Amino acid sequence: MIDIHSHILPGVDDGAADIDASMVLIRELVDNGVTDIVATPHYVDETSYVSKVAANTKLLKKLRTRLKKEKINVELYLGNEIYIGPRILELLKAGEISALGSSKYLSVELPMSGEYPGYMDVFMELQRAGYFVVLAHPERYTAFFKDFDSIRELYDMGVLLQCNLGSFVGHYGKHSRKIAEKLAKNDMIFAVATDIHHPRGDKFMPTAIKRLSKFYGTFELEDILEKNPRKILGV
Fold first, then answer.
1. In this predicted model, what pLDDT tens digit does every residue of 43-68 receive, in sequence order?
2. Which residues are bridge partners to 120 per DSSP?
């Protein structure tokens, strides 16, 4: 599996607090079959979650050094989980935020309510600029719980949908699980990811993948676990 959404970078957001905590998360992912990880720290403009690409790159380099020392075989890439706002293009041009790897794919999140005036205008602006919008965990936004058509509208305009594996085992509640399963049934998921912040230790990943196999055949499941994420990273 290639994990395109994780919070393994130390000390920059609500994920790993330090490099030791980062290593615990990485080991858990590797033990569950993850071969490539994109570190996607939150970037929320005008808050404390604004670590920039240059600083994040240094942290990623430290993690790679530690991985090499401990002989853990996994590839790391840099990205951001970008909180929606009017300055995304400006921040990209300034080199303050990162697409996923060296790609043109952007991981973007909405408020957990799912309510942001003009979010479709922001997505269209990014698309016109040549970027692909990957919407992080659409199944978790409360506004979509009773308005599946809003997700379908985003899907129809070319927004790529990334669901969290944990949603399929109830980590975010029954409503998120229901929406995630509906997205799977309608073959609308582009990729699944862990969105890991802290150690789980409950082997949720194989359980979630087993449940996904109820909706996808072997080759289709490979698409959302590996082929589409590989397409994003160009590897």
1. 999 999 999 999 999 999 999 999 99
2. none
Mean pLDDT, to the nearest integer, of 32-41?
98
The residue whose two tokens read 């409503």 is 175
Distances (CA, A) of 115 to 45, 84, 141, 144, 157: 17, 11, 8, 9, 18
Other CB atoms within 10 Å distance of the CB of residue 42: 21
CB burial of residue 211 (10 Å; 0-12, 13-18, 19+)? middle
Structure tokens at 78: 């840099």
| Number of other CB atoms surrounding residue 112 within 10 Å | 12
pLDDT tens-digit map of 177-235: 999 999 999 999 999 999 999 998 878 999 999 999 999 999 999 999 999 999 999 98
Residues with Cβ within 8 Å of residue 147, at least 6 apart in sequence:
none
Token output for 168: 């399929």
Phi, psi of 225 (to 5 degrees): -90, -30
Tens-place pLDDT, residues 104-121 = 999 999 999 999 999 999
